[in-house]
Design goal:
The structure is a single chain. The protein is mainly β and 329 residues long. It has three domains: 65 residues; 70 residues, no CATH class; 136 residues, Glucose Permease (Domain IIA) (Distorted Sandwich), CATH 2.70.70.10. Strands 17, 20, 21, 22, 23, 24, 25, 26, 27 and 28 form a ten-stranded antiparallel beta sheet that branches. Strands 1-4-3 form a three-stranded antiparallel beta sheet, with no helix packed on it. It is elongated, with a radius of gyration of 31 Å.
């Protein structure tokens, strides 16, 4: 336990043979200046150190004690290390280190940590501080980009998917289902019905809501004149979101915009309805994630959940065996 914590002690009293303890009130006491104990056995830790909480009865002829180790506030006793340590889910920061990350890389430390910081935090003037561009997650589990959450299993910052569905086509090389050519799929496709509500995956700002189009020109055989028109292609109707770190997110093949501009909250604001606009074979949602330098990465690497639909084969093609724009079935 640590300074400031309370612990309720209980004891089963067994009297000595021939003694009458029925009217006696057991006496609780503390050995060592580690805290105080009430007449009912409620111990309050006030100072770090090692001591005992004891109960006496039968006119002090019988005495039982329990050893207690009190750690500094915020620390817990680690029976394996035999020292005060940080609680699970936090990292130690020692007086000899500058940050939680450097403490994490140390093989061993001869002392108890000075403070315990959440993942990705740094120590500044004896306090845990989130690096610039990050803040404590809503559950105070770690320092992540604003609106992100901390995955305790993978130990990394993640975002919520735009829809709570499985995906049918992964990030990577594939045979395009409509063009029938080898193409690099720069996002993932979710299995959704048309009209499904799409949530913003992150806190950020909508910087574009419109359609991807191209000019198509046809020559009239009779008149010889060329007539051009714009058609919706590619992503069809799509929304581009800029995150707090200038990263970009794309949700595409939409049927309707619910929001077309302004600030949005991740996993809260509904921004669109899914559809099959653009180059599409049916209702689905295309989702991409770009780094600030426009490098496109696998969205699954930053999503809190990302599972291939059981009926689909989500393996990608080997770039050593297939060439971009090569015909495929």
């Amino acid at each position: 336990m640590s300074v400031g914590e309370k612990m309720q002690f209980k004891a089963k009293i067994t009297c000595l043979e021939g003694a009458d303890c029925s009217r006696e009130i057991p006496r609780w006491s503390v050995e060592g200046e580690i805290g105080t104990v009430s007449s009912t056995g409620l111990f309050t830790a006030t100072k770090e150190g090692q001591g005992k909480v004891c109960i006496s009865y039968c006119q002090d002829k019988v005495k039982a004690c329990a050893e207690v180790i009190v750690c500094p506030a915020g620390l817990v006793w680690d029976s394996e290390l035999q020292q005060c340590a940080c609680p699970p889910g936090t990292y130690p920061v020692y007086s000899t280190t500058l940050s939680a990350l450097s403490a994490l890389s140390a093989q061993s430390q001869p002392e108890s940590p000075t403070i315990c910081c959440p993942p990705r935090a740094v120590e500044k003037n004896g306090k845990c501080v989130c690096p610039e561009g990050t803040s404590l997650t809503r559950d105070k589990a770690a320092c992540c980009p604003t609106g992100w959450s901390w995955d305790k299993t993978t130990q990394k910052c993640v975002i919520s998917p735009p829809v709570d569905k499985c995906y049918t086509s992964p990030f990577g090389l594939r045979c395009h289902p409509k063009l029938k050519k080898i193409k690099k799929h720069e996002g993932i496709d979710y299995k959704v019905s048309c009209g499904s509500k799409i949530k913003s995956p992150v806190d950020g700002k909508i910087i574009f809501a419109g359609s991807q189009t191209k000019n198509v020109c046809k020559k009239n055989k009779e008149t010889g004149k060329k007539k051009c028109s714009q058609i919706v292609t590619g992503w069809g109707k799509y929304i581009k979101i800029k995150g707090v770190d200038n990263e970009i997110y794309i949700v595409a093949h939409l049927s309707k915009f619910l929001k077309e501009s302004g600030k949005i909250k991740g996993n809260i604001d509904e921004i669109a309805l899914s559809g099959t606009t653009g180059t599409s074979t049916g209702c689905h949602l295309h989702f991409e994630k770009w780094e600030p330098d426009k490098t496109k990465i696998d969205p699954c690497s930053i999503l809190s959940s990302c599972e291939c639909c059981p009926e689909k084969d989500c393996t990608t093609l080997d770039p050593e065996k297939y060439k971009i724009n090569e015909k495929c079935k």
